[in-house]
Amino acid sequence: MISWKEVGRIATLLFVSSLILIPLSATVLGGFKTTGEMRVSPFGWPREWITEVYVEILRDPQFWTYLWNSLVISLLTVFLTLILGSMAAYAFAQAKFFGANFLYSYLLLGLMFPFAAAILPLFLTVRDMGILDTPWGVILPQVAFGLAFSIMFFRTFFKQMPDELFEAARVDGCGYIRFFFLFTLPLSTPILATIATFVFVQSWNNYLLPLIMLNDRDGYTWTLGAMDYRGEYSWAWNRTLAFVSATLAPAVVFFLAAQKYIVAGLTGGAVKG
Amino acid sequence: MLVSEGVAAAPPRESAFQRMMANGQLKMVLIFVPPAILIFTVFVILPMIQAGLFSPYKWSGYGPVPWALNEDTGRTFGRWIGTTNFERMMSHSAFKQSLVNTLLVIGVSIAIQLPLAMTLALMIYRSSRINTVFRLIFFLPYVMAEVATGLIFSFVLDGNYGLSRSFADLMGWEKAFFPLAEKPWAFYCILGVIVWKYFGFHMMIFIAGLQSISSEVLEAAKIDGAKTLQSVFLIKLPLLWPSITISVFYAVLGGLQVFDLVMPMTAGGPSNSSHTLVSYLYNFGFIRLNIGFGSAVGVFLFVVGVAFAFLYRNTVQRGQ
Amino acid sequence: MAEVILNNVQKRFGSVEVIPDLSLRIADGSFTVLVGPSGCGKSTLLRMIAGLEDVSGGQVTIGGEDVTGAEPDKRGIAMVFQSYALYPHMTVRQNIGFALRLAKRPKQEIKERVEEAAEILKLGPLLDRKPRQLSGGQRQRVAIGRAIVRNPKVFLFDEPLSNLDAALRTQMRVELAELHAKLGATMIYVTHDQVEAMTMADQIVIMKSGVIQQSGQPMDLYKRPGNPFVAGFIGSPKMNLLEGRVAKDREAIVFGVRPEHIKVSDEGGEWRGVVRHAEHLGSDTVVYVDAEKVGALTVRLTGEVPLRAGSPVWMTPESGNVHLFRADGSVERV
Ligand SMILES: Nc1ncnc2c1ncn2[C@@H]1O[C@H](COP(=O)(O)OP(=O)(O)OP(=O)(O)O)[C@@H](O)[C@H]1O
Ligand SMILES: [Mg+2]
Prior knowledge:
The structure holds three protein chains of three kinds. By secondary structure, chain B is mostly helical. Chain B has helices spanning 5-8, 16-23, 25-54, 84-91, 93-124, 129-143, 146-156, 163-171, 183-211, 215-223, 228-239, 241-256, 262-265, 277-287, 291-314, and strands at residues 57-58, 69-70, 75-76, 79-80.
């Protein structure tokens, strides 16, 4: 029953998978090896499982500070992007006001913007506002850059919601603002989840903005921390690999669980199982 | 910003403005829209305008703006140098190299990565448990942080340890081989990692597109006598055209902005041979606190990006 | 020429058995309609004839040739899908000509045959449009055109009219019947719609859970249903199928009588009852009665009859039109 075509397909897929999984497993396993073994067998199974490296990293408060900082920045970015983006999108979807189209196109400019182009003046702006070296120096620019795409998605979604619902609520004496918080937002969980996941991934993985805005080690995100660690322990790959694995593992599990939303965010449509 | 004619003269019937006032729409708009506009303007639009304004100055970033007067010295903070920044940039070999590299990224993304992503998407777009597993594996690199990816591959390509070591041993070379430190190799390694990291992303776009093709259409083609390849080239690819244009758009705009991967792998070296536009900007603008020069590079990046986006949307993606 | 024969055909999806064992002969040039409740395996059967679905066992023969393992395009069949399945990026002309193009026919021949098909279906002025610029009925015609142009021996239709509105459906029904008369090809047609089945078919095949319940000419099935399922499936309103005393008294398990075969009177009759609800259609009156001893009955009377809810009525089943379904599977008509 099994055709050669199917065998060829699976073989190809397994080959590509190995190109992905071998470096990743070498990374995870690397943290369990001694420096000496790293040299001899970088990709193999550890001959002897050394747990000290991982334990040391997990015991290091600095490591948790990095993760905590990343988490705070990402969550606040998600929260602000969702609230500001959905509010503006709601106004654009519900109300017809003079200049609405202009303002909407203005915001959509953000979609074609190479974000790094204005990084130096952005740095100065953040500096002059006095929020350099604080999470806000990373959060606010991230929110600003996430707004364009989230407003576009929210607006499309809100436009598809039935008008009757709003009209019924209006008859019952519910105003625009109350309606937004009592009906529109609760009914938008799929799109909220999509945008939240997407923004979170972007923020969690961001490197350039924290690199520019954060100088104080205690404020570092984990991406900065990882680079720092690499610089500090350049002689010991097992340490860097263990650090990378420890930071990557929870994120990867979360992202894979939420991959449906990420892809939906990228393609503007839902993806089936 | 809001309708204003209605207020001036008393109109015969209720004006749109008054109606908005009465039903609370105006209040909602006034509360809901400004925060987004404000934050977007302050952190996206104004900095871009400033980049344009700063680009003709030589300025270290000290002081509020380059043209303000510094009370202590009696001169402005920055010095007006006209188009010098642009000229220097254009004649700088590292810049030219970074431009070539960026174009290489875009070229490789479109010419190698997209076909690869398409081939894999065609192999696993149907729903089955095995395909879901492969999809997750192929998507894994995309969700990993660039920095982590870069670190992992600087290990893999480290001459004393990873793949490159095994390769050198295999070839029987005496000396360790450090591809990331060799001028002809460094950027090709980065290109390889870019393909590795982002093909899953494009594959997902194609899978979403393929899944939206009606299975009855494909069966109709089968009955009409289309073989596997014919159904790919005559039915699936034409119907995927919107997905392909989206993918190309992301490939170009994303390619223009590669930075995070370069830093852990080569940081632009050896001897500035592996810079991208953004890492060049970071290195020669930010690190050296050369705000005017960095702004000029930024303006260049902006013009290229926006010109592409604008042209693309109005030609290739027209009507989608 | 192109008789379709299914010999002990089976179909399993994994462990789910959709068609246990089915044999059927479809005469050359006939118009055969497959009907049955949703999920009974009609589409699956059609797709196995088309070659879109492998058979798990048995044999499919088309025109005397065993095609069990053959590719769809090698079977001499054409199929029209419920969603039309037009190629959205091709014009009507390219849609219709696609099979010929794949078969590498010369350009001139393709052109002629496409135009010939367009002629038959009155698609001439639409040839250079894309599917999205067409109405539902026009799309349906293009789908049929795509089938005609290949000169198939057998046409397969899977609920082709179900996406059309009632008026268009009636019109397309007539057109399909004409097409059948004109081409003389074998046609196999799946539908949910009784009217389509009754009006278009030479032969109706009634299926349930992958098993053929009965096949035959429409009037045959109407007059001589072989089991209560067929009796209830053909005819509208549904035949009254009574269990209990009425049936037992006559040594049957089910006593069947069609609504149009019950006489009504206000003086006397076999059963007494009270009208629960009456539908006045003008040409007919459909009356729902709660009858003593037998339970709920549907009665159809010709013309307008002034019965209202609450009216007492007497009812008598017409002799000769009562179906007694026995436990041994036999049917007696009295
Ligand atoms: N690919 C499949 N995998 C598993 N089960 C299937 C598959 N295709 C069909 N089935 C099952 O086979 C049975 C018959 O399906 P089929 O589509 O033939 O029904 P049908 O008679 O055409 O129904 P309908 O009138 O609703 O179109 C159904 O129970 C369906 O769930
Ligand atoms: Mg069906």
